[in-house]
Amino acid sequence: MLDYYIDIFSYHHQFNKTVIEYLEKYKNNFPEKCINWMSHILYAHEVWILRVQNKYEVMDEWTIPQSEFVTRENSNYKKTIAIIQDLPLKKNIKYKTSRGIIYVNSISEILFHICNHTAHHRGMIIAEMRNSGIAPPVTDYIFYKRI
Fold it and tell me: Are the C-beta atoms of residues 93 and 104 closer than 8 Å to each other?
């Protein structure tokens, strides 16, 4: 299971960086919401890491400047790999939402959520690229495995 999660997060890491490159390259050709979605992907991933580390506090500001996207992506990836390698995936994490509601989920469930969340919003960015006349990068997992 550890190898599986490392592989999946390596895939997301590679294609998040690719999409970030496209966002920079074509920044004047598509709506600002694409930048906001990437910011959301990175910030939410960071929040989940902090929850697993029992360090999360609700923050008022969630926007990440585009100039920090690559740095934050690299940091999230490194910290996530450390979580996968160092903590038992079945360990339950108790955390509080921004609304103050307390939940408990396993690290494995949290990791799966991060993957789905990332893929969902990255797909929204890709769709918007197409709508803006930009040929988006191919980000399907199978293409990652073919490299």
Answer: yes
Per-residue tokens: 93: 């994490």
What is d(CA 135, CA 84) in angstroms, rounded to the nearest whole number?
Answer: 34
Cα(64)–Cα(139) distance, integer angstroms? 22
Instruction: List, in order of start, the domains of the chain with CATH numbers.
Output: 2-146 (1.20.120.450)
In tens, the pLDDT along 15-56 reads 999 999 999 998 888 788 999 999 999 999 999 999 999 987
Determine the Cα–Cα distance for residues 88 and 91; give it in Å rounded to an integer. 5
Q: Cα 91 from chain centroid?
A: 21
Return the ∠ at Cα 54 (arms to 48 and 109), rounded to 5°: 40
DSSP 8-class letter at 22: H
pLDDT one-digit tens code per residue, 64-122: 788 899 999 999 999 999 999 999 999 999 998 888 899 999 999 999 999 999 999 99
Q: If DSSP states are collapsed to H, E and C, what string results for 41-57?
A: HHHHHHHHHHHHCCCCC
CB distance 45 to 114 below 8 Å: yes
